[in-house]
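Weekly modeling sync, notes
Attendees: S.R. (lead), two postdocs, one rotation student

Agenda item 3: backlog of single-chain predictions. S.R. asked that every request posted to the team notebook include the full sequence so nobody has to chase files. The rotation student volunteered to paste the first one in as an example of the format we agreed on. Action items at the bottom.

Example entry:
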Amino acid sequence: RCWYTGSRSSAASPASILQEAKVPASPLQSHDIAGVAEHLGQCRNIIVMVGAGLSVSAGIPDFRTPGTGLYSNLDKYKLPYPEAVFEMSYFRRYPNAFYALCKELWPGQYRPTAAHFFLTLLNRKGILR
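Predicted structure, as returned to the notebook:
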């Protein structure tokens, strides 16, 4: 862990702030794809934190972007509020909205992105945690 404990003046440069904060040196030999690939080749455990935005370039909408997000395009289901489509109590009374949405997002309608293939590769190598 890195903790910044020093005083920060407007004259301090980013390099001096990092040095004062005792930030460890980068584990990368270079900050390009080759450097990242070399470093990842030495890792035994990798944690990846992603959200719905990972799939946006495949054409799958995220949840909250106004106009294009999933929640913005649920009017046709006449939901009381967007999140209702994912709630069990609503599903028990009105399952058709959930099933219609599933049909729209069903696997096979979208092509995986490079990010999806990368996560699959990490998983197949047994290093994705």
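Discussion: group reviewed the output briefly. The CA atoms of residues 47 and 129 lie 5 Å apart.
Action items: rotation student to repeat for the remaining queue; S.R. to check formatting next week.
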